[in-house]
Design a protein that fits this description.
mainly beta, UDP N-Acetylglucosamine Acyltransferase, domain 1, 10-stranded mixed beta sheet, 6-stranded parallel beta sheet, 0% helix
Length: 171
């Protein structure tokens, strides 16, 4: 086996009384023990201690997951994505490469007392590459966000949005 790769490891969760198998690449920095069975975390990814990741997830290379993040089951997070505090991701969600999430409506340098807004991505949502999701929004169940879209308001369940600012596709 190539020395750059780790094998599936068993992680003990004493509070749950179970042992889970997860793949964590040797070059990833993973502090969380709340990672579901059969999840894979690839190289150059950082997962902070309080983050919660479901089972059967694929966290691709060059990702960052902050403390107050909850990710459901069967979620794919492609390369170059940062998941900031306040993000809630449902089950069966696809987050494309370089998707950008924000958690502060009025950011400025040196502000350490900003109001962190919660963003909710419901089940079965697909977010295309390079989309930007502004803070405090809800993407409804089964919604689709087109590549490069800038989402400035909630997306209703089952709707597809594209463009800047993102607008619903006519059906």
């Amino acid at each position: 086996m190539n020395s750059c790769f780790a094998e599936f490891r068993k992680l003990a969760f004493p509070d749950k009384g179970v042992v889970m198998n997860v793949f964590i690449h040797q070059l990833a920095d993973v502090k969380s023990l709340s990672i579901g069975d059969n999840t894979r975390i690839w190289q150059f990814s950082i997962v902070l201690k309080e983050a919660k990741i479901g089972r059967d997830c694929n966290i691709c290379a060059h990702t960052f997951i902050e403390n107050d993040v909850i990710i459901g089951d069967n979620v794919t997070v492609k390369c170059g994505v940062q998941l900031w505090d306040g993000l809630r991701v449902g089950n069966n969600v696809f987050i494309g490469p370089n998707v950008t999430f924000c958690n502060d409506k009025h950011p400025f340098s040196g502000n350490h007392s900003f109001s962190c807004l919660q963003t909710v991505i419901e089940d079965n949502v697909s977010i295309g590459a390079n989309a930007t999701i502004l803070p405090g929004l809800r993407l409804g169940k089964g919604a689709v966000v087109g590549a490069g879209a800038v989402v400035t308001k909630n997306v209703p369940p089952g709707k597809t949005v594209v463009g800047n600012p993102a607008k619903e596709l006519a059906t």
